[in-house]
Design brief:
The structure is a single chain. The chain is an alpha/beta fold and 465 residues long. 31% of the residues lie in helices and 17% in strands. The strands form 4 sheets. An 11-stranded mixed β-sheet has the order 1-2-3-4-9-8-7-10-11-13-12, with helices on both faces. Strands 15-16-17 form a 3-stranded antiparallel β-sheet. It has a two-stranded antiparallel ribbon with strand order 5-6. A hairpin with a 2-residue loop joins strand 15 and strand 16. Helix 3 crosses helix 5, helix 4 packs across helix 5 and helix 6 packs antiparallel against helix 10.
Length: 465
């Protein structure tokens, strides 16, 4: 475990620092299993992810506290990582009950034989065996897509709309707006905190951009953190499984910036969370990205506030409010966010999605100019997985296609900047899959049209043609 990661941590209950004791056996290449101890409390580390929580480590709904899959307790995980088979802790956290066959998922009486008793136990044991076999196989030959399909499409109770929401995130309007905001954050000696980081999409960008930032991602859903740690943002990043509504397990001023993207408006106690984000960052510097305006429908949650309500939450700390519409517009023009001029909250009453930049320092409060290169094109390039691939004789056809009605409703703006369709020679298609085109100019054009995106190297499976 990296010392710079340990240096940020403290026990959320007694505020003491941690000592790390690795497990006697490290079952995976590049793994880190062990125990964090403050002298009073102990927490398990499972494949490099510190679990600093109490109670069960459940898989929870993304917009509420609803428990989709009950998980093992912290005490159980501690016992396992101290045992002769620490890998079982990871299996227990990643092996969700499999989907009910024959389309009986929503038919309570008919599905019961598949969820309980001998058949239910056999199916669960089969899923645990499958997960262990995948973990024991070379992870460098696997993809994030493979594991997302398992969690979101092939598991009981999973929200299937979460699969395209996460897998196809790199080209979404909300992601581009977030990239524009993240591009304004300068590199610093202290790391960046990404609260409710999900699968680590923003952390990926921060790790591959020209001036990379070491980031620490926090989320309550372990399986999302694990995909981020192994596939999405494995480098220059660390991960903690913790609850955003409880004291965060970090020292005062541990970070240069605390960030929360597309999640803050879902939280029931936003004041306590914001106080913690400020406490953890130098100059109370907090970036809260994509929060819903409660004056406008549809609402993601009852906890959305009006623009004035968010301003009241901030208190006396200087801030800038900006709309997602403006962030996206400037991004597509090749520019970062305009943060020099303060605008009153009432100016945003007709904007559904808002972002906040809060700080006692004025360093971020400038109009950020032209990108050296588009943030969505930084790092290794890959074929945008939103395109449906069809073989057409000696050619390959790429067709932009929304995966669902809900995805189209949420992301209709993609039609404004994505290429609708392309016909490519096979050699040209193979080059795009490898992340390049015939020459630098052609590559830049495919990036401009969002056919090529900056993607993690083991993100999507090669399209079958």
């Amino acid at each position: 475990m990296q010392q710079r990661f340990l240096d940020t941590l403290r026990c959320p209950f007694c505020q003491r620092g941690f000592q790390y004791t690795p497990s006697s056996l490290q079952p995976l290449a590049g793994s880190d299993f062990g125990v964090l101890s403050c002298g009073v409390h102990e927490y398990p580390v499972v494949d490099g992810i510190a679990i600093i929580r109490d109670g069960r480590i459940d898989a929870q709904d993304h917009c509420s506290d609803y428990v989709e899959v009950e998980g093992p307790s912290v005490g159980e995980l501690l016992a396992i990582v101290k045992s002769s088979d620490p890998l079982d802790a990871l299996v227990r956290l990643l092996a969700f009950p499999p989907s009910v066959p024959l389309g009986l998922e929503k038919r309570r009486r008919l599905r019961t034989p598949f969820t309980r008793g001998p058949v239910g136990n056999a199916l669960m044991n089969s899923r645990r065996k499958q997960v262990r076999e995948w973990l024991e196989a070379p992870l460098e030959q696997q993809t994030a897509q493979q594991w997302m399909e398992l969690f979101y499409l092939k598991s009981r109770y999973a929200m299937r709309e979460m699969y395209p929401y996460f897998f196809l995130r790199f080209g979404q309007p909300r992601y581009l707006a977030s990239l524009g905001l993240a591009s304004a954050i300068p590199a610093a000696e202290r790391p960046l905190l990404d609260l409710a980081c999900g699968l680590g999409h923003i952390m990926h960008y921060l790790s591959v951009r020209e001036n990379p930032i070491y980031s620490i991602g926090v989320d309550r859903n372990f399986f999302q953190l694990w995909i981020g740690r192994r596939f999405v943002a494995p480098d220059s990043s660390s991960y903690v499984c913790a609850d955003a509504l409880k004291p965060l397990p970090f020292k005062d001023d541990a970070f240069s910036v605390s960030m929360c993207t597309d999640a803050f408006h879902l939280l029931s106690d936003q004041k306590a969370c914001l106080d913690e984000l400020k406490r953890c960052a130098v100059d109370d510097t907090v970036v809260i990205d994509r929060i819903g305006n409660g004056l406008l429908e549809p609402r993601d949650t009852e906890f959305e506030r009006s623009p004035a309500g968010y301003a009241e939450l901030i208190g006396d700390t200087p801030y800038r409010m900006v709309s997602e519409k403006d962030l996206l517009s400037r991004y597509l023009e090749g520019r970062g966010p305009a943060l020099a001029t303060f605008q009153a909250p009432a100016a945003f009453n007709d904007d559904k999605w808002l972002s906040l930049v809060i700080s006692k320092s004025s360093k971020l409060f400038v109009d950020h100019g032209a990108f050296k290169q588009p943030p969505h094109g930084e790092g290794p390039l890959g074929l945008n997985p939103v395109y449906r691939v069809e073989p057409k004789g000696a050619q390959v056809r790429l067709m932009f296609e929304f995966p669902s009605t809900w995805y189209a409703f949420e992301n209709w703006g993609m039609l404004e900047y994505h290429a609708y369709g392309l016909r490519l020679e096979r050699l040209q298609f193979d080059a795009l899959v490898r992340g390049s085109a015939a020459d630098k100019a052609s590559t830049s054009e495919f990036v401009r049209r969002f056919v090529l995106l900056g993607l993690p190297e083991r993100y999507a499976k090669r399209p079958a043609i």
